[in-house]
Amino acid sequence: MPRNKGFVLASRPKGEANASNFRLIEQDVGEPGEGQVLVKHHYLSLDPYMRGRMDESKSYAASQKIDDVMIGGTVGEIVASKNPNFKVGDHVVDANGGWQLYKLSDGKSLNKIDTSRVPIQAFVGALGMPGVTAWYGLNKIIAPKKGETVVVSAATGAVGSIVGQLAKGKGARAVGIAGGPDKCKYATDELGYDVCVDHRAPDFAEKLKAALPDGVDGLFENVGGQPFALTTRRLNAFARIAICGLIASYEGKEKSSLEDVRVLLVNRAKIEGFIVSDHLALWPEALKELIELAATGKLKWKETVAQGLESAPEAFFGMLKGKNFGKQLVKLI
Amino acid sequence: MPRNKGFVLASRPKGEANASNFRLIEQDVGEPGEGQVLVKHHYLSLDPYMRGRMDESKSYAASQKIDDVMIGGTVGEIVASKNPNFKVGDHVVDANGGWQLYKLSDGKSLNKIDTSRVPIQAFVGALGMPGVTAWYGLNKIIAPKKGETVVVSAATGAVGSIVGQLAKGKGARAVGIAGGPDKCKYATDELGYDVCVDHRAPDFAEKLKAALPDGVDGLFENVGGQPFALTTRRLNAFARIAICGLIASYEGKEKSSLEDVRVLLVNRAKIEGFIVSDHLALWPEALKELIELAATGKLKWKETVAQGLESAPEAFFGMLKGKNFGKQLVKLI
User: Fold this and answer.
1) Axis crossing angle, helix B160-169 with helix B283-295, rounded to the nearest 10
2) Once rounded to an integer, what is the mean pLDDT over residues B13-41?
3) What's the total number of domains in chain B?
4) Closest residue on chain A to B222 (Cα)
5) CATH number at residue A317
6) B14 located within any domain
7) Mutate: best of B266, B275, B277, partner A, most A CBs <10 A
8) With contacts defined as CB-CB under 8 Å, which chain A residues touch B260?
9) In terms of Cα–Cα distance, which of A310, A303, A308 is closest to A324?
10) What is the CATH number of the domain that holds A158?
11) How much of chain B is helix, strand and coil, in % rounded to 5?
12) Domain membership of residue A309 as a residue range
């Protein structure tokens, strides 16, 4: 019988998360009971929202419980089945497979995936939660018109990279904000952003202003902090801001404030926070569009892959600091 | 020939507006030319938006021009007509009759009004721009469900008093914020608010908290400043905030900030600024509903009436400080 390994939440972070907040556990995986399957995970997805769950403070979902396996999306394959809906060899995505090698499941949280046209790990990235998040915020909140300017922070991240490409597909001008010249180069050369501004550059404020000669019609916000404050000073009439994440504020380091709400009144602008799991009904529509784009080479993404379950905590801390480039994965096999 | 008197903008305010910013002018009214009418104004409406127009800074509309008659809604009667659409004695509302006794008009900005069921001045108040503003923000942005809590700042003002009554009509719990015990008493005893909190009371923060045991689902914001900051700390999931005005910030005295945008993400909440003139297509629908409510005694309002054109500047300054109680009018005849 194979052994399962996983990380549980050992303690809640005070400020920055660190290794002491996680504990590695190991145990037998057990046999599937009637109606159950055993899933062997191939990839674990690491995402910024996990940091929010580690806190006790009110968030959009219940806190991660202490001593429970850390929440996390996974892709994998069925290796044993006593459930008629799944057979050995089926590939599946699990919105909460967790930070672990195996999972016994009743199948309710599993969705079968077709990996014949796209690699399996895309189903926790561009064709999974991050991709559908991008699709929802861009299409349902920002809804850009041709020629409008859409700003995307964390422009090369798992969500942002998809937002930029979808915005271009709608005929909008896409302006990325990313950390460092390599990411900015990738944003313009590979993802198709019209321009990308490096928020680590000393002249960031000037460069951002220069990148927005026609103001801002849409803002897809993944980061918050100072870039958010600067961008919201340049809103156009009827601007729409989708708040998807505020990673700059997650560890209490930098506040994300709207200094002067009058900018919303003057511009009749809208700011809306959202989380994709509130909109599951739209998932199939979004996924169909994203899979078609991906399978025909019209949707690109980059991955940063950490090798082995044990590397998950360090990879997670790095992602919170923007060290990853594109979708952060942990390869478990 | 009657003489026209009016106020023009003499200079832009630095900080608080004062008497030196206006200049009284007097001239012959002139005869209507072909296609024109002469309107004798009965009432001038004074509204907070006028303060924004006096500034040069970017606002939702062009600045009021120096030496032009001050912008302002009026109701009056046709006293001479060379336009087949209007006859002498017709009552009309003019979205920009201006701070003056008479106006020569080509009729394009005039709408005939039926004053048989409601008093004429209601058409610049509950049945005019303030009423339709209340209707739009409440129904199209907040859209309260039965049992939800809706907070209204400037709860007894021209807009707020209508918002509270419409919210109650939708089965929501209406919580008012107003300045002073008299306004608060009027809000609960006459307008039907479930509770009203006095923002001038020393224990305002505690009282507001106590008034919101189930949090905030909708906020109709007319004021901004500290009450806005305190109310937005108590948002529920999927809360909707309509930004109609930020009078606390208009003279540069108090900033209206959203301290932590994360509250929008955590609650998947929305903040939207609006101005009713962007939604003229909905005006007839709104007005029909409001007139019916008013004519059948289901919509109440209060008026503060200043007597005579010359009293307009002082009445305007008082309104910006919240000295009016209900709709601020100037009676011109």
Assistant:
1) 80
2) 95
3) 2
4) A265
5) 3.90.180.10
6) yes
7) B266
8) 249, 255-257
9) A303
10) 3.40.50.720
11) 30, 25, 40
12) 3-125+301-331
